[in-house]
Amino acid sequence: MSEWVRRVSAAVAVGALGVSLAACGEPDDNAPHAGEQTPAPMPLRLATTDSVSSLDPAGRYDVASRTVQANLYQTLLTILPEKPTPVPDAADCQFDSPTTYTCSLKEKLTFANGHELTSSDVKFSFDRLVRLQTPGGLAPLFTSVKSVSTPDELTAVFNLKTPDARLPYLLTTTAASIVDEQSYPANKLLDTKAVGSGPYQLAAYTPGETITLTKFTDYRGPRAAQNDGVAITTLKDSNALYQAMTTGKTDLAFHGFGPSLLEKLRTSDRVQVIEPGTAEIRFFAFHMKSLLSRNPAVRRAVAQLIDRPAIAKKAYGDHVSPLYSVVPPGFGGQSDAFKTEYRQPNKAAAGAILRDANIAVPVPLTVGWTPSQYGVGAKAEVLELKRQLEASGLFRVTLRSAEWPQYQQLTKAGAYDLYQGGWTPEYPDADDYLAPFVSTSGAFASNGYRSAAATKLLQQERAEQNGLRRDDLIGQLQGVVARDAPVIPVWQTRSAVVAGKDIANLKTAVDPLSFLHLSGLRR
C-alpha cells in the first residue's frame, strides 16, 4: 500500500519534468517497465467511534456526517488549513452589493457520475435544503437568502433579504454542498447513496459499520486527494480504537480516546498523536431569572476568580486549553477579552467588586452540572470551580446535577444561578460564538441576557463587508461580553488524532469545526 501511494505521489510531483526529459531523449524512470505489474490501489484505513447519521448534506448535522460529507461534496467556497477566510472551491464569489452575492463557477465541473455541474445544481441544492428543513440540519443558517438566481450555466446569484457578511463562511459548510439535481429527490433525503464533486466518491457504505471512499480524479478544487482513498470503520468504544491503532489494524484513529489511553499512545514510538484546538468550547453561563445572576457585580466577581489553567490541569490533565473569550483562537477578530478585562484570578479585586455593589458575602451560588453529556471530567471541573470560589471566602457554592434530558429543561427554566455548558459552532466564523449568547434568537437566548450595546455590535458586524472593520466590531463585541459576563468561557477542546509514523500532513486534516479533511493525508 505505502509503495503504491509513494509512486503515485512521485508521478504527480515529477510528471512534467519527466515529459521534458523524455522530449530531450533522456530515459523516463517513472514510465512502466516491461513485465512490471502496477500495484493495486489500497486506501488509508481510518477508525473512529463516531457513527454517520446522514450522507445527505441536507440531513442532520453531526461530526461524523460532516467528515464524510466534506470529503464527498464540493462547496462554492472552502476553508483551507491555517487560512481562516474562505477561498474558492467550485466558484469565485463576491458581493456586488450588500444584498447581492455572485458566484462564478469554474468551467467543466462534473459530478462523480459524469453529470455536468452547473448553476442549476447550485440553485437546486439550496432550494432543496430550505424546503426540507431537516430537524437538526442547518437550513436555518440561510434565512437571509431570499432566492438564488441563475443568469447562465456558470453563474449563481444569492439575493439577500438583508446584508449578511457571514454568507461566505456559511457557503463553506457541508450544508452548502452542491448535489446533482438529476440524482437527488427534491422532497426527501437520500441517505444511502451520495453523488458529489468533491475529492472522493462513495464506493461502499454499510450504515453504522463501514464507509469506503475512493479518489475522484476529476475533482477541480484546492483539496485534491493525495491518497488513493480512505476506508472508514466505526468501532464500539475507546478500547477497540486503541487496540486497532496499536496492533496496526488501522492507519489512523479519530474521536473516542480518553485521557488515559492518549497518555499511553503518546509514549509509543509507533504512532504520532496530535491534539489541535477544535471549535468546541466549554463555559459557565448565568441565567437572568436568578436575582443573583441578574446582578452584574456577582457575575464579574465570579469571572475575576476563575483560574482556568487550574481547571484544565486538575479536571482534564491539560488535555484542554484555557479559553479567555467565547471566540477561540483562529477565528477572525478574536481577542482574549476576559484576560484583558480581569487579568489574573484575584481575590482582592473580586471582593472590591462585590463590596462596591453592597453585596454581602459569602454569596450563596447554585451551580448546575450534568454527569453524562460533558464527559468524565465534568464532575472534577465543577468541584474545582467550587473550591476556587469558596477559597476566596466570597461565595458559598451548592452543586446540583441532573442527567442530560432533564438538565436541558432545568437550565432553560433557570433552575441554577450558574451552569456548565458547551457549544460547537455550525459555521467557521466568530459570529457563531457570539450570536448564541447575544441574539434574541440565539441558542442561549432563554438565559435572558440583553444588551443594547452588544445587539448593535452584532448587527453591525453582520452587515460589514470590509474584513478589517468587521474584525474590529467583533473584537468590540467580545469586550462587551467580557464586561457584562453573562457567560464565562473556561476551556477549548482539543481533538485527538492518532496515526502511524508514516502518515504525513496530519495537522492539516483537522477542520476548525472538528471534522477531518482526508484529502491531504499521504504516506
Please bin the fraction of helical residues.
25-40%
Strand content: 15-25%
Q: Structurally, how many domains make up the residues?
A: 2
Average pLDDT score: 90
Question: How are the strands of the biggest sheet laid out side by side?
Answer: 8-9-10-1-11-19-12
Number of strands: 19
Quaternary form: single chain
How far is the first residue's CA from the last residue's CA? 9 Å
Query: How is the CATH topology of the largest domain named?
Result: Dipeptide-binding Protein, domain 3
CATH class value of the largest domain = Alpha Beta
Q: Rg, please? A: 25 Å
Family: Belongs to the bacterial solute-binding protein 5 family.
Signal peptide: 1-25
Keywords: Signal, Transport
GO molecular function, one term: peptide transmembrane transporter activity
What can be said about this structure in brief?
The chain has 523 residues and is α+β, with helices and mostly antiparallel strands. It is built from 15 helices and 19 strands. It has 2 domains: 44-223 and 497-516, D-Maltodextrin-Binding Protein, domain 2, CATH 3.40.190.10; 278-494, Roll (Dipeptide-binding Protein, domain 3), CATH 3.10.105.
